[in-house]
Structures are given as structure tokens and as C-alpha cells.
Write a structure and sequence with these properties.
Length: 101
């Protein structure tokens, strides 16, 4: 992630039952806002539409940065607890930080 970013909002933590459906479908973080998925417990599948595409299994202690405007999704694979940080350079979070595809 670029230098100078600050956490401006955190979503969660979520577990396997409370993880919003929108995060399990392709969606994007708003322009000028970075995301970072933090795995607190368990594991979660993560995919991101990049070249080449990313498809990984994230485990407890992992953190996955998400650039602005890049389509990605989480996949529940069992027990999990995750939080998503939204980061930007010294500004308030936009009204909609997550955009559905």
C-alpha cells in the first residue's frame, strides 16, 4: 500500500454467519480508498480481478491489501472472524466506500 494512508473506518469484525453477502460477491473499494482485509480467526477465501488474477486462502494473522477500484470477493470456508479497514490520505471516508459490481 502507498505511504501516508490512515485507517478512516473499520467494518466488522464479522464471523461466518454475519459476513455481509455483498462482501461475498464481486465488489470494489471506492476510488482513492484502499481496503485491507484482516483475518482475526480461521480462514477465508479471497479473490481479486488482477492480471494475473489472485485467488488465495487467507489465514489467521494475514492481511490482504485491496487497491481502489479493483473487483474482489471473500469466500466463507468455515469458521472465520475478519475485519476490513478502509484507508485514505487524511480525509473522511466517502459515503459509499464499497461499490457492488
Amino acid at each position: 500500500m502507498p505511504d501516508g494512508l490512515e485507517v478512516i473506518q473499520t467494518a466488522g469484525p464479522f464471523d461466518s454467519e454475519s459476513l455481509p453477502g455483498g462482501l461475498q460477491r464481486d465488489h470494489r473499494v471506492a476510488e482513492r480508498t484502499w481496503g485491507c482485509v484482516r483475518i482475526i480467526e480461521g480462514t477465508v477465501g479471497f479473490s481479486m480481478v488482477t492480471d494475473p488474477p489472485i485467488a488465495v486462502q487467507l489465514r489467521e494473522g494475514d492481511a490482504q491489501p485491496i487497491p481502489p477500484g479493483v473487483s474482489h470477493a471473500l469466500r466463507v470456508d468455515g469458521h472465520l472472524r475478519v475485519a476490513i479497514d478502509f484507508l485514505a490520505r487524511g480525509r473522511s471516508i466517502p459515503h459509499t466506500a464499497v461499490k457492488q459490481e
